[in-house]
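Sorry, explain these tokens?

___
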Amino acid sequence: MDATGPAREVVVGVDGSADSERAADWAASEARRRGCRLRVLHATGTGPEPPRPAPRNNGYRHTVRAARALLDDARHRVAAGHPGLCVETTLTTDDPEGPLLAAAEGAELLVLGTRGRGGFSTLLLGSVGLRVASHVTCPLVVVRGRAVREPARRVVAGVQDVRDAEAVLFAAETAARWRAGLLALHAWEPVSEVGHLVPRVDTVRELRHEHVRSLLQSLTAAEVTARVPGLRVEREVVDGGAAAALVDASARADLLVVAAHRPRTPTGLRLGPVAHAVLHHARCPVAVVPDR
């Protein structure tokens, strides 16, 4: 570490697939906006070189050479699309989970694609990806949605209560950086709170007002107005499940932001159900912000 401290960086995992190329482009754009360097990481998953006579290691060495070529291609591709951006690469022969989590320590952002091949083939939808999302210490962005789409100029933040202040602030700062608006979306299910019998209208109205207050308190806790002055903020309370409401809103957003809400289980941390659902079904990139 030098006198100025470690360099700020955005980390992206790549494997040569089209989805990882999209993730690298997204990460490069965000690194430039943030004034960070970009670290491009590839994991072969082959483990250390086996202690065998040289002729029997040809397959292993071919894999490593191909991995280096993949990283070089990724670096050149990103540099061509983002002139002046500082790009560094990391090659590891370990499985992806550990290196990604290690690289994310101290990073501003970890970025992944939705599907891949090789060491990253099950990164999102399989157990490796869920473990990364469950344990990463910085915000994780999974680049979902169509490859080409018109910008919506909107960031959507899912808000449950004041515990989401960190995610709301991340969404607000991102929206300001992108010169976009922020939609703070809160969903509630009347049936789950008042039962299946037909409730009094006054009861439903009072409960809805409570949820509106919860949304406003969350924005206050995030200090959005003070820390991101001039940001255009919309507030919306919708009836229904949070995951479904957020997936629907993602069709009209450039980024969907949710808190990780990681409950501790006997086997360790796991991802909260809303974050899990939107990672699999959202129609735009998703940011999962860890709990503090």
User: Anything to note?
Assistant: The two ends are 25 Å apart (CA to CA).
